[in-house]
Fold this sequence. Notes:
Number of strands: 14
CATH superfamily of the largest domain: Transferase(Phosphotransferase) domain 1
Largest sheet: 7 strands, antiparallel
Structural class: alpha+beta
Order of helices and strands: EEEEHHEEEEHHEEEEEHHHHHHEHHH
Helix content: 25-40%
Oligomer: single chain
Amino acid sequence: MSLPENLTGLNLPQRFTFGPRIGAGAMGEVFRATAEGSDRSLAVKVIRPEMAADPKFVARFVREARALERVQSPHVVRVVDLGVARANGRGLALATDVALDTNPRALGPDQLLYMAMQWLEGEPLDQRIKREGGLTGVAALELATGLLDALAAAHAEGLVHRDVKPGNIIVAERQGRLHPWLIDFGIVKSLDGDLGASLTTGFVAGTPQYFSPEQARGEAVTADVDLWALGVTLYHALTRKYPYEAATMARLIVTIGREPPRPLQVEDCPKCASPQLVALVNGLLTWPHTERLRSLDAARELLRRSPENLADEPPTLQMRPLRRPSQATQGVEVPPPVPAMVAPPPLEEPEFVASTEVPARPAVAPQGADPVAGTLAMTPLVRQALAETVAMEPLVRPVAEAPRQKGPRDWTWAVAVVAVVAFAVLVWWVVGW
């Protein structure tokens, strides 16, 4: 028996009743639901049946839930239940025979994988930025304080979010303060590898405008990429601009990888006259990335001294050290999340995922060329982004010449010359602006 197309109104005994659908994305749908035996609202995320037929997508869904269970922060959305329901003649029933371990199998057409989460009364940060034309200095201070706490909690568990951006942040007013929640751990990376293999292993995942230079160059992902993305998020929240601007995706990625960002200036955001807040943003967008952690350590002091902090001091930030793989503990039981009202997950913009496999023969940059730019020009990440742009017009236009009889060897040389010229033009096009 297949699952019904419309889940609204269906009851999963001992769990919840599906309410209206509140959003949909590439992988699944989100419903408002009511917890069994109470009027408590939940946000229930389900995976689409066609996605559930692929074990890789099932694993990604489970990874997100397991990661959220581990991160204990008032600024991270909580998961209260993860399971599989099965359709029967009467509606839905729990499928207790399906194991959701680190290597889950594909699900059948009668099975529904769900994640019940804390309901958040708020709105996505990107919507608030559009509605208000940017945040005030006070709101940005409160946003930074909450997100630093969220990232500290995630990094202490050895987890890197990899997609910090306004669309993955829910904000609400609580007791006169802006309270943010970090959501959507769908492409989370575990530095311990204890969440199983990532769907994006060997790929760069995230949203290009928030890529760190390391991501743009296809280098190994560390917690630093989250700090960089937080800096871009604050930059955009204050100015509605980005530290990098480019006409095409390919040019944007290459620019991020080879050039420092445009620093935030006080005059860029009249609503935030604080030099300390500007210093925090620029500290999170520091080159090289090894300096970024020191900027994070100084964030508490910068926030404390900021004149936007007009009322009480912001909550003390518990900046716990990142747990490296060598420090991983085996068999540690994670305390269950505190049941709470549940939150809507992100209705995210499409992710950008590009291969970062190293070419068999790395290209050699011309003498005097920027070695970083040369390397970027040859990465599959840039090549994939270039595809749509380069395809718009041929790299080498045919040249008319007098016709003459060509033998097989002549054609071989002609093809080789055209290939070399096309390759050279491509490299020049990428790095030569």
